[in-house]
Write a structure and sequence with these properties.
heterodimer, A: 300 residues, mainly alpha, ABC transporter involved in vitamin B12 uptake, BtuC, 3% strand, B: 414 residues, alpha/beta, Rossmann fold, 2 domains, seven-stranded mixed β-sheet, 21% strand, elongated
Chain lengths: 300, 414
């Protein structure tokens, strides 16, 4: 561990590599986590199938690249398909567990996650898949730091998508309805908001966001039907750290987690890269507990 | 009176049926002229791809043996048949089904499942019932350290997978006027039984040559990113990078080696083929060394299938959709050949006699030579090392099977 720290101080340029890799991937984590924050905040549903939605999006990009279409065009396709899929899942499953206690929704989405993994496994097989962007790879700072263009492009795309979602939530009627429902579902209903439709839309929007994140993941990391869980855990860590309805917090936590994973993996060894994520979750929960002990917060 | 007679007859006959029914399975090992082998293997779940490759190998060998005269035991000719169950890629299910094959179906001769994990679950069950198992897909060396007398494996064990790369690195160092002790090795292994076995073999050989390990990272099971490890490789510039983590490890490594333009002169990894890295990552994979149990270009031969190339052709002609024949299928076929050979030498169906015969196996097959150690692993077949050269895999080590010279340092332009 000390050796690795020494490497970082001896070759400080490596910090840039780790930081860039962390931020680029962290942005995608943040995107998927924002979807979770939305569903959690608005519907009080803890969606354990979050990571599997991400994988589904990834497989859409994979299929497109198999068909000879550049996987980046998978982005709009995944958004549309996953939105529709999210809507159907809401109608079939989520609408039945909403408003029930926490464990019902946890069980239902956990079951959904297993189902999706197995279906993906049946269709695509258990082998690892990737979608190749074929974009340039640049080396900077004397070849010690390499940046794949696709990572940079996905970083930009993530920012654009986040901006669109935020604008939508702020200014559109549906966005306002979603925020109203999040504040007080009963009052929103009294005011004439069709909360059922709002819920369906929110869940579908979340699936679409995850799908977009998956397309980017397919071009940067690898896909496997059972890899969704790692993303679900990351989303939970980010949302727990940032709190619900706190978009800047989600972005910061996402980027931070990405960078933290990279530095942790470098210093402590790759075997700790994911342990760090879970360790962070414990730490965040402890801090929250401590904060809550000091000042009682109203639960919205 | 007549009524009583009738009901007694009914009772007797139904008892007879019941007794026969119960007695039935005990004879099920050989039904008429058919010897029934049993296997619980993965048709669904995460090992399904390779499970199906393996079962195709079993089936092809069974078909070929049956067509070419069958198995001669006691002057009579018998045929093979395999009874399969789907273990759903889960060890608990595998063990359960092995028990069912033995206890309910009366199977006395087993073929192995796919993967070391499943084999590890099934082996204690077959040992408990003293049923010999010839397996072709479990390479973990821990399978052969339990004192299990009923397991026989045709493949090379996992600690041999990348050990040949270390030997090759030492050879190259000597050729270049350096000492093997100067070779610096970076290792990245997944934290699972198979990869850790591979690692143990590498570590043994590294210390044998007195080489220095500069990176020793263990990758988590569902890690899709090893850029932190590769950043270290960039900083420390080792002479050899070894990676093992099933297909996902190979795919992740190949993608990120390309992305980070890693220029280590020698890179060795397992599962190159399964991860299809050549088609996916193209020229960036040039020079990777990939171990394999078997290759169709090897000069092994037998009387049943002919040469390795003949097996390759027959397999492709029999099953659609194979561009390359996976070694998983080849070794599965070899396992069935081992059974035939053992039955014929034992000249009996007694499991103990057949087990005795198995221990004395000494065969030359299209898959390689087969001779079992006391622990049950095959000690007659070396692991083959192939190198990706201009997009094709060429055998470069061990030297008596090599068709091409090793390229060192690997020629790659990013």
């Amino acid at each position: 561990m000390l050796d690795n720290l020494l490497i970082l101080t001896a070759v400080p340029v490596l910090n840039v590599q780790l930081l860039l890799d962390g931020l680029f991937i962290g942005a995608i984590f943040a995107l998927a986590a924002y979807g979770l924050a939305l569903v959690w905040g608005v519907m009080n549903v803890k969606n354990l199938a979050q990571g599997d939605f991400v994988m589904m999006g990834g497989y859409i990009a994979f299929v497109m690249s198999k068909m000879g279409i550049h996987p980046i065009f998978g982005l709009p396709v995944a958004i549309v398909l996953m939105f529709a899929f999210g809507w159907i899942v809401y109608r079939l499953i989520i609408s039945r567990v909403i408003g029930r206690d926490m464990f019902t929704s946890l069980l239902a989405t956990f079951g959904l996650a297993i189902l999706l993994q197995q279906v993906l496994n049946l269709i695509f097989g258990p082998e690892v898949q990737t979608a190749e962007s074929g974009f340039e790879i640049r080396s900077i700072l004397g070849g010690m730091v390499t940046v794949a263009d696709i990572k940079f492009i996905s970083f930009l795309l993530t920012a654009v998508l986040a901006a669109i979602v935020v604008t939508f939530m702020k200014f559109s009627r549906m966005g306002q309805a979603i925020r109203a429902t999040a504040q007080d579902a009963r009052a929103a209903k009294v005011m004439g908001i069709d909360t059922d439709r709002v819920y369906a839309f929110t869940y579908a929007l979340n699936a679409a966001i995850c799908g977009a994140a998956g397309v980017l993941i397919a071009m940067i990391w690898v896909l496997q039907p059972f890899f969704g869980l790692a993303y679900s855990i990351r989303c939970f860590v980010i949302v727990t750290a940032a709190g619900l309805g706190n978009l800047p917090g989600v972005i910061m936590a996402g980027l931070g987690l990405g960078a933290f994973e990279q530095f942790g993996g470098f210093i402590l060894g790759a075997e700790f890269q994911q342990a760090i994520v879970v360790g962070m979750l414990v730490l965040v929960l402890l801090i929250r507990q401590f904060q809550q002990g000091r000042q009682r917060q109203a639960v919205v | 009176m007549f009524k009583l007679f009738k009901s007694t007859a009914l009772l007797l006959s139904s008892t007879a049926v019941l007794v026969l029914g119960l007695a039935g399975p005990a004879q099920a090992k050989v039904e008429g002229d058919t010897i029934i082998l049993g296997s619980a293997i993965s048709f669904t779940g995460k090992y399904s791809t390779n499970g199906i490759h393996a079962s195709n190998g079993y089936n092809l060998a069974v078909k070929r043996i049956n067509e070419s005269g069958g198995i001669r035991v006691g002057g009579k000719s018998y045929k093979f048949k395999v009874k399969y169950y789907d273990d759903e890629s889960t060890p608990a299910r595998g063990a359960q089904l092995a028990e069912r094959l033995i206890k309910q179906d009366g199977i006395k001769y087993m073929l192995g499942p796919y993967s070391s994990g499943l084999t590890k679950a099934v082996a204690p069950v077959t040992a408990k019932y003293k049923v010999p198992m010839v397996e072709a897909e479990g390479a973990s060396r821990s399978l052969f350290t339990q004192g299990n007398k009923y397991i026989f494996a045709v493949l090379s064990t996992s600690e041999q997978y990348l050990a040949s790369a270390i030997a090759l690195a030492a050879e190259i160092a000597k050729k270049n006027g350096k000492k093997p002790q100067d070779v610096r090795v970076a290792m990245a292994f997944e934290n699972d039984p198979f990869s850790l076995d591979v690692r143990a073999g590498v570590v043994d050989d590294v210390s044998k040559y007195g080489m220095k390990i500069v990176i020793d990272d263990k990758l988590p099971r569902d890690l899709a990113d090893m850029s932190a490890t590769l950043t270290k490789v960039k900083a420390l510039k080792p002479d050899l990078l070894v990676v093992s983590g099933h297909s996902k490890g190979a795919a992740t490594a190949a993608r990120q080696i390309k992305e980070m333009q890693i220029d280590t002169p020698m890179i060795a990894m397992t599962h190159c083929e399964a991860a299809k890295i050549i088609t996916k990552f193209g020229a960036a994979t040039n020079g990777f060394l990939c171990p394999t149990q078997w290759a169709e270009t090897l000069s092994y031969k037998d009387s049943l299938f002919g040469s390795a190339a003949d097996f390759d052709r027959l397999f492709k002609a029999t099953y659609d959709g194979y561009k390359n024949v996976p070694y998983q299928a080849a070794q599965a076929a070899a396992a069935v050949m081992v059974w035939k050979d053992a039955f014929e030498r034992a000249n009996s169906f007694d499991t103990e006699k057949v087990r005795e015969a198995l221990t004395k196996t000494d065969m030359r097959t299209f898959y390689g030579n087969i001779r079992f150690s006391d622990a049950g692993n095959n000690i007659a077949k070396p692991m083959v090392l192939r190198q990706i050269q201009d997009g094709t895999l060429n055998v470069v080590a061990p030297s008596n099977w090599a068709s091409h010279k090793v390229e060192h340092p690997r020629m790659v332009n990013y």
